[in-house]
Amino acid sequence: MSTSTNIEIQKATAERTAEIRESLADIRARVASAAQALAVNSDSRKIVAVSKYKPSADILVCYEYGQRDFGENYVQELVDKAKELPSEIQWHFIGTLQSNKAKLLASVPNLHTVQTISSEKIANALNKALPTDRNTPLNVLLQINTSGEDSKSGLSPLSPSSFDSSQLSDVQKLAKHIVTLCPNLHLQGLMTIGALDLSLSANETERNADFERLKQTRDILVRWLQDGLGSSHDGVNVSKRWRWGDESTGKLLLSMGMSSDFEAALKAGSDIVRVGTGIFGSRKTKLSST
């Protein structure tokens, strides 16, 4: 286990360690059960442990129990934790990113994914800020506001008419921009924070409308990318289709579902779930954690 610095991390208590390990084991079992119901390998479903406001000691418990993917909402918090925790961790940024923080975030060597891209400005800032000695492109997900709530960030989802329209949507424009003009970024998929009440109120036969909108947006976007950017398009040759989607399957991944609705998200076809409270327990507010 290698760390970025020689900072000594205070270990979690035995009681806290047992609590976190039990919670993580429960989440893993529920993910495996959901995957089994879909007849897919549970290894194809990724759990991102959302460690916002949680101490490095808690993260280390999960790491030592085999967890490698962790998500943070604030740039400085991610940067600080990355310095003192094992370099094998794959960090996911899942908060709102300001362009003036892109350079600081991009300096984290084991930054794995930024899940909240919603503008060319942010994409350009990250593409420019990534170190030249980075071995692989940075995975990015486009954030889609599937619920249409003003309180949530993201681009509007696509509809079937988007594919045939001569006017490109914001999602298509941003995807094209990343694929053609941001060589240091890898368009891996789409992310949403749906309306929680849709998941909580749905029964066994109902589908979560927000999750369905994200799936539809993914399917339309993949088709458009393959048809429009699979060869020379507007004078730009992007024939290498590995520039978007999962490297092994070529499909765009979906990140949807959190502690309260990740099972519904998995049932709907999510590839990545973001679980915080379900693993670490209720988190403190930013004010009370200071």
Automatic annotation (TrEMBL):
Top-level taxon of origin: Eukaryota
Protein name: Pyridoxal phosphate homeostasis protein
N6-(pyridoxal phosphate)lysine, modified sites: K52
GO MF term set: pyridoxal phosphate binding
Pfam family, one: Ala_racemase_N
Family: Belongs to the pyridoxal phosphate-binding protein YggS/PROSC family.
Key word Phosphoprotein present: no
Domain annotation Alanine racemase N-terminal: ranges: 24-221
Protein function: Pyridoxal 5'-phosphate (PLP)-binding protein, which may be involved in intracellular homeostatic regulation of pyridoxal 5'-phosphate (PLP), the active form of vitamin B6.
Secreted keyword on record: no
UniProt keyword terms in alphabetical order: Pyridoxal phosphate
